[in-house]
Amino acid sequence: MHEESLSPRRVRCPYCDAPFDLLLDPSQGSQLTWEDCHVCCAPIQVRIDADPADPESLTVTLGRDDEVL
């Protein structure tokens, strides 16, 4: 992962609605990962849909730990 390929994305916690920034690497393609909220510490599912050939197609979906993404 190269720092210049990271794309910041402003998102909101699905639990407490606090805004925070995620650093995403669109060159890695689609993925499902977890991130803890920096305010309420709740576990957030992060689904990243990306086409490595088209970095502009990046979409991010956040969900609670009991949701299916």
Automatic annotation (TrEMBL):
It comes from Halomonas campaniensis. It comes from the Bacteria. Pfam families: Zn_ribbon_21. InterPro entries: UCP037225, zinc_ribbon_bacterial. This is CPXCG motif-containing cysteine-rich protein.
